[in-house]
Amino acid sequence: MFTNLQYGGTMPFAKTWRCADRVFDLSARPLIMGILNVTPDSFSDGGDHNKLDDAVAWARRMAAQGADIIDVGGESTRPGSSPVSLEEESRRVLPVVEALAAEGFVVSVDTSRPEIMTAAAKAGAKILNDVRGFDLTGAAEAAAATDCGLVVMHSFDAPRGSDIVAAVYDYLAKRTTVLRELGVSSDRICWDPGFGFGKTVEGNFELIAATLRFASSGQPLMAAVSRKSALGAVIGREVPKDRTAASAACAVIACGLGAQIVRVHDVAETRDELLVLAAIEKAAARLVH
């Protein structure tokens, strides 16, 4: 990472991320988390992978393109989306988790419901990814009772005029404290500042610019910027699938600033840009030494 090179490799970035029986080495390269939405109404790819066979096929394709983790979501988090019942989310998600885990994929489940967290872990998920920061009643306790890696995200509206970076950092730190007090080891807890959730366009990019501050927390750090509307506002593209280049560029810039995991729709394009970043970083390291 360029930023760490500037400081002689002394920044207190996380070295590993413990996810059940997998321990990811975060010092080698950024991890790619491929998005698999099994929803009819997700903002970017709703309805594309609703059938089990289609979902498994897409996961295989993303893995072949370089995805380290498959993130399965059964409820859309786009603004204005309709909530689904617990039964419907279970029906959408759990068969996919079981099928992917049986094939050896590292599966993440994007959910805020404690019941889904418990069931997903039993079905073979190794990561629980909660856009609400394990803040709903029972969610933190359910997550702590598993051995999964946990992604804590900030998604609440930030007060206008506030220091967005400080507000998000403080929230993530407080949620981490809650999980630690429930017995979750620090190396299981990954931070996601929540690009695109409850922030202005300017606030979103302030979070990217402050990636070093979040990475310096010592927690594994995720950049989840893929196809978000803030990117569309900057490049003038309203259709989410037309934001591939901007998404990959933003993810790679975040990695250059300290992010260690990227959550993306477009795995192949992101992988290519990360390989270029790695080549530049190796060249920079040679120049430093």
UniProtKB/TrEMBL annotation:
Pfam families in the record: Pterin_bind
EC number, UniProt record: 2.5.1.15
Gene3D superfamilies (alphabetical): Dihydropteroate synthase-like
InterPro entries: DHP_synth-like, DHP_synth_dom, Dihydropteroate_synth-like_sf, Pterin-binding_dom
One GO term of the biological process aspect: folic acid biosynthetic process
Catalytic reaction annotation: (7,8-dihydropterin-6-yl)methyl diphosphate + 4-aminobenzoate = 7,8-dihydropteroate + diphosphate
Pathway(s) annotated for this protein in UniProt: Cofactor biosynthesis; tetrahydrofolate biosynthesis; 7,8-dihydrofolate from 2-amino-4-hydroxy-6-hydroxymethyl-7,8-dihydropteridine diphosphate and 4-aminobenzoate: step 1/2
Cofactor: Mg(2+)
Keywords: Folate biosynthesis, Magnesium, Metal-binding, Transferase
GO molecular function, one term: dihydropteroate synthase activity
Similarity field: Belongs to the DHPS family.
Protein name: Dihydropteroate synthase
